[in-house]
Amino acid sequence: MIIGALSKILWMLFKPSSLVLWGVLTAAVLAWRGRARPARRVICGVGAALLAITFLPLGGWLLYPLEARFPPPRPMPEKIDGIVVLGGSINARVSAYWGVPALSGQAERLTKAVALARRYPAAKIIFSGGPGVFTPDGPTEAAVARQFFTGQGIAPERLIVEDKATSTYQNVVRLKKLLHPVAGGRWLLVTSSYHLPRAVGLFRQVRWPVIPYPVDYKTAGPARISITDIELARSLDALDFAVHAWGGLVVYRLLGRTSAFFPGPDKP
Fold this sequence. Notes:
By secondary structure, the protein is α/β, with parallel strands linked by helices. It is built from 10 helices and 5 strands, in the order ααααβααβαβαβαβα.
């Protein structure tokens, strides 16, 4: 839990959008202390970075290789044992306050799982998602996911939920201990396309073969400079997503938790 909290804090402090803010604050402090020349240099650097982020599809350039790494399975398997859905698509605190499932921008992880559950009526639906790192006794994603799935007509006896995990690594480790998957089983792994390389690497490291099923695409093919995409907030958001995804691959590989730096269909 401490490691997870530390990683969250470091990410909040040093993600691209936060670095822009730190640059502005640094320039303000320098100007306040009478150091006008360094302040101007910092502001010019921040301005140049914002212009690059606004007018160049940096996030798209970084996200596309991740999203294209695992194509949807073709053909789809005739039979599967279960549909594994990773957390990250629910705002548990908002859900608890209002009493209804509040989904995040990664909601397609859940909505596509419902469609797949109807396609494979005999398959179990497995969801892993615990409380927030900073609210260990708070509401869990798993509880909201159960509410969401049953509200979509999925029978409660088909659901298996894990409510302790606070990271992708914990999702995988805890689910394997819970399910004890046997050799020859067929499991669909449903998560965001940019998240699949890291997730698949974790599953392979614990020797649990899964069939990747990408959802929640953010890009429309290889990124190109386009006048319609010039929007600072959206560009910063895409860059944050991309840096977080690539950073996760690097960190998990350095920790020995994934089977390769950039797992793919051709790399076990």
